[in-house]
Design goal:
Largest sheet: 2 strands, antiparallel
Radius of gyration: 26 Å
Strand order of the largest sheet: 1-2
Strand content: 5-15%
Number of strands: 2
Shape: extended
Helix content: over 70%
Number of domains: 3
Number of helices: 8
Structural class: mainly alpha
Order of helices and strands: HHEEHHHHHH
Length: about 190
């Protein structure tokens, strides 16, 4: 199969360092500049706009700090490689989330209002996304294998059995101690 012209131009941009220098610099510069502008950590100044005076962040300081931090970031090949790996994983996770929501939304009734995850499904989905991002980060840092190995080494049969027994006891205690009237009253209020 012959490479397309566009593929050749992408490879040329890669050889120029667009993907491992320019784009990471722009991303870090933009994120840090936006954070500094929003937080106003480096102070504000008053400028006259028409008849009024507005307080705005010090753009010159914010841009210099963001510029320097962006350059320091791209000077480290390890940081750039780590960021590229994390962003690739997060991008793939976003595609999977979109596909999941697309399938879930296709089973929903068509309404004027947009489709949102509600209640427990929203909470479960947020937990799954947080776990996915944590696993992506651990994998990029090469800590995932170490973490799984550590967990596997401490999870003997006795430990798993003890944890299961404690969970069964706690579940039984909750079942015995709970107030059934409270659950019935709460259900009738909804």
């Amino acid at each position: 199969m012959q490479d397309s012209t566009l593929r050749g131009s992408l490879e040329f941009m890669g050889e120029l360092g667009i993907f491992d220098t320019v784009l990471p610099f722009l991303l870090i510069f933009t994120l840090i500049f936006a954070f500094l502008e929003k937080s106003k950590v480096l102070g504000t100044e008053k400028i006259k706009v028409g008849d009024s005076v507005e307080t705005v962040p010090k753009k010159n300081l914010n841009s210099i700090v963001a510029f320097v931090m962006g350059f320091i970031f791209v000077a480290s090949a390890q940081l750039v490689g780590l960021m590229n790996e994390i962003l690739a994983g997060v991008g793939m996770a976003l595609v999977m989330i979109f596909a999941y929501l697309l399938v879930l939304g296709s089973f929903q009734e068509e309404k004027e209002t947009p489709f949102y995850l509600q209640g427990n499904l929203n909470i479960v989905f947020q937990i799954v996304v947080i776990l996915a991002i944590t696993l992506i980060f651990l994998n990029a840092m090469n800590w995932l294998d170490l973490t799984i190995g550590f967990i596997a080494s401490i999870m003997t049969t006795q430990v798993v059995t003890t944890i299961a027994l404690i969970l069964v006891i706690l579940g039984f205690m909750y079942f015995v101690v709970r107030d059934p009237r409270r659950h019935r009253d709460k259900g009738s209020e909804d």
